[in-house]
């Protein structure tokens, strides 16, 4: 029988894999941001599993990963917020919100 | 640690005091911070600060070793140069309405400086992650400072790719914690052993950091982001920001996992660097715009920064070790930080005066802006690694390491890179020095202080060679330069001119004669075809799906190379 930590670890791996797949195949920036959050969730589930496995001496879990987890959540939240703010601004400035990377290869004839 | 705190305190004060005062607060903070760093460097390395008095593994330690102090000092000097330069462009004169861009620029400059200092002194992998994220969050808005759709798109692309890199790094960090139960660098360095989980963690962390450093082929975001930003911001991004994640690769490889990294993986890292040098230099030569040329030159120079990894390998102990190669890498980084910042500033001044930066239309600039063109030339000399620049001393150290470990092929890469760098510097200068009948009138006056700031940074990059020579006791420069050094410098310049004549998109008049030789025409046609192929390959690599897959492929390749050792 699989123990709890292994189960959580496998779930984490599945989440990271799903997120990575979405990150690579979806061209829309918003979907990429969501995919980043799915990968992030996978990493955080892994941290939870690590904390659970590290529990010893009568403790339910290792407290250090939990502190790391909370900090990581805050950082990921800031990242998503900043990315979405950029995306909103881009949507207001331009008609299309693509990341088409050939745009800079053909620079504007007149500088902005 | 005061050096980390000062910039952040300054950033908050500038934010609180508002638009008009931001510049004053920033300049005061920069001067104070430079003093603090200089004092710390004077007192010598080995400073340790325990946050809240808690010792690792439960607490977090900040450690300022020699590496960190050298980088902090260099960054403080470059920040000062950029600050003086930006005083002209990002000022709010009395009586004018406060604008958003200057206000934000000063705050972000301080934030980037503070995050970099935190990256240099952090003694804990997770603190490093937070510092790295702070650095990215401060750098991304700098790209989109002017708010146009094109720069916003560049900023978003940078942000998303950097996020992918940081999530890779975080995953590696957490796996490391899962195995060893600590993230403190010193404790980890003593505990690590090569096992599959550790190898996975090292591969993930390395690739995540490479994505943030924009090592070829993970460079999709860099050229548009660095070329689209205002000149002072480009100087910050190109000279400083990429050094943060690069420094972290050094920490991870040299301090955290010295016993895990293997020779094949180091060769792979430097191989990517060599590919960066060859491809990005040729693509730089094919650019129409000066700022894009300088941006591609950055992609190439990032390659140089990774050549030191196999050279630092101690063949006897089969372990990576600190030595001449690491010192050389550090020198290379500092030299690039100063020279590239100066180069972007010079390009920005030319852009401001002309209203465009098309390389083919630079004729007459040398007469209108002699100091700026001189700055570009001096920065170019420093990038090529000609004596007496810091990069020359770095090159010497690399050659010594390569010679003693029998890795002659990296010497070849270094020399080729020098030639290619010379080619685009010569190309730009040849365009800029063309005589025009009517002197061009600058569209707006070029501030003298900005010209001098850029020139000072370029000279600093050259003088670095003497400083390093004295500090390291190499005795390679004073009175040791022989006639053969002069000849090799001339050879590099002449070779560069020849390459420029073959590959360049638009040839200035003085190269026009090349086509008259019978063998010139087919040679030029072949070179143009090769250049076009390189540019095409670069375009494909910078497409999003390809770049994301390259990220995964690089992770697998590093995993395999680490297991192979």
CATH fold category name of chain A: Helix Hairpins
Largest sheet features of chain A: none
Mean pLDDT of chain B: 81
Percent of sequence in beta strands of chain A: under 5%
> What's the quaternary structure here?
heterodimer
How many alpha or pi helices of chain B? 22
Helix segment count of chain A? 3
Report on the structure:
The complex is a heterodimer of chains A (112) and B (565). Chain A is mainly α. Chain A has one domain (4-93): Helix Hairpins (Orthogonal Bundle), CATH 1.10.287. Chain A contains three helices and no strands. The longest helix of chain A has 31 residues, at 63-93. The radius of gyration of chain A is 19 Å and the shape is elongated. Chain A starts with a helix and ends in a 19-residue tail after the last helix. In chain A, 31% of the residues are buried. With 565 residues, chain B is mostly helical. Chain B has one domain. Chain B is 74% helix and 2% strand. In chain B, the strands form two sheets. In chain B, strands 1-2 form a two-stranded antiparallel sheet. Chain B has a two-stranded antiparallel sheet with strand order 3-4. In chain B, strand 3 and strand 4 form a beta hairpin. The two termini of chain B are 39 Å apart. The model of chain B has no long low-confidence stretch (mean pLDDT 81). The interface between A and B is large, with 48 and 55 residues.
């Amino acid at each position: 029988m699989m123990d709890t930590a292994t189960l959580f670890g496998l779930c984490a791996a599945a989440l990271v894999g799903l997120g990575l797949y979405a990150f690579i195949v979806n061209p829309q920036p918003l979907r990429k941001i969501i995919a980043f959050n799915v990968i992030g969730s996978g990493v955080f589930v892994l941290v939870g599993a690590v904390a659970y496995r590290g529990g010893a001496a009568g403790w339910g879990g290792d407290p250090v990963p939990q502190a790391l987890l909370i900090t990581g959540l805050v950082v990921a939240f800031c990242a998503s917020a900043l990315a979405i703010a950029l995306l909103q601004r881009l949507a207001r400035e331009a008609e299309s919100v693509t990341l088409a990377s050939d745009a800079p290869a053909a620079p504007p004839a007149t500088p902005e | 640690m005061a050096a980390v705190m000062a910039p952040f305190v300054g950033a908050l004060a500038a934010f609180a005091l508002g638009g008009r005062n931001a510049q004053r607060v920033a300049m005061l903070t920069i001067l104070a911070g430079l003093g603090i760093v200089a004092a710390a460097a004077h007192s010598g390395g080995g400073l340790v600060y325990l946050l809240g008095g808690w010792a690792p593994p439960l607490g977090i330690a900040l450690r300022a070793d020699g590496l960190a102090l050298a980088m902090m000092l260099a960054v403080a000097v470059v920040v000062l140069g950029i600050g003086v330069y930006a005083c002209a462009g990002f000022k709010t004169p009395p009586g004018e309405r406060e604008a958003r861009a200057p206000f934000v620029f000063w705050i972000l400059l301080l934030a980037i400086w503070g995050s970099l200092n935190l990256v240099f002194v952090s003694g804990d992998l997770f603190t490093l992650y937070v510092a790295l994220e702070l650095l990215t969050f401060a750098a991304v808005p700098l790209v989109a400072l002017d708010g146009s759709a094109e720069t916003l798109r560049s900023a978003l692309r940078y942000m998303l790719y950097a996020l992918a890199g940081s999530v890779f790094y975080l995953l590696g960090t957490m796996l490391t914690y899962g195995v060893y139960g600590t993230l403190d660098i010193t404790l980890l360095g003593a505990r690590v052993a090569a096992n599959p989980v550790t190898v996975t963690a090292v591969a993930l962390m390395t690739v995540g950091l490479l994505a943030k450093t924009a090592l070829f082929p993970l460079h999709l975001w860099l050229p548009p982001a660095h070329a689209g930003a205002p000149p002072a911001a480009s100087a910050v991004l190109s000279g400083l920001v990429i050094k943060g994640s690069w420094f972290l690769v050094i920490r991870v490889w040299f301090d955290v996992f010295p016993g895990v990294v293997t020779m094949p993986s180091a060769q792979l890292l430097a191989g990517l660097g060599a590919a960066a040098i060859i491809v990005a230099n040729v693509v730089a030569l094919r650019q129409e715009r000066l700022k894009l040329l300088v941006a591609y030159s950055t992609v190439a120079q990032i390659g140089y920064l990774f050549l030191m990894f196999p050279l630092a390998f101690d063949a006897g102990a089969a372990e990576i070790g600190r030595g001449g190669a690491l010192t050389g890498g550090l020198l290379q980084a500092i030299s690039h930080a100063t020279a590239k910042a100066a180069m972007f500033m010079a390009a920005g001044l030319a852009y401001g005066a002309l209203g465009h930066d098309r390389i083919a239309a630079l004729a007459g600039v040398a007469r209108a802006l002699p100091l700026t063109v001189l700055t570009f030339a001096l920065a170019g000399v420093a990038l090529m690694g000609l004596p007496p620049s810091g990069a020359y001393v770095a090159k010497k150290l690399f050659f010594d390491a390569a010679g003693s470990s029998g890795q002659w092929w990296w010497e070849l890469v270094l020399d080729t890179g020098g030639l290619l760098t010379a080619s685009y510097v010569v190309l730009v200068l040849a365009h800029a020095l063309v005589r025009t009948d009517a002197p061009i009138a600058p569209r707006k006056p070029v501030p003298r202080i900005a010209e001098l700031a850029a020139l000072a940074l370029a000279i600093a990059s050259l003088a670095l060679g003497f400083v390093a020579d004295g500090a390291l006791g190499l005795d390679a420069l004073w009175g040791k330069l022989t006639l053969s050094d002069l000849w090799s410098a001339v050879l590099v310049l002449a070779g560069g001119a020849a390459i420029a004549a073959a590959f360049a998109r638009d040839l200035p008049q003085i190269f026009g004669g090349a086509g008259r030789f019978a063998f010139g025409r087919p040679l030029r046609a072949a070179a143009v075809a090769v250049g076009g192929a390189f540019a095409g390959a670069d375009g494909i690599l910078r497409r999003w799906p390809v770049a994301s897959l390259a990220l995964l492929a690089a992770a697998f390749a590093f995993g395999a190379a680490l297991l192979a050792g």
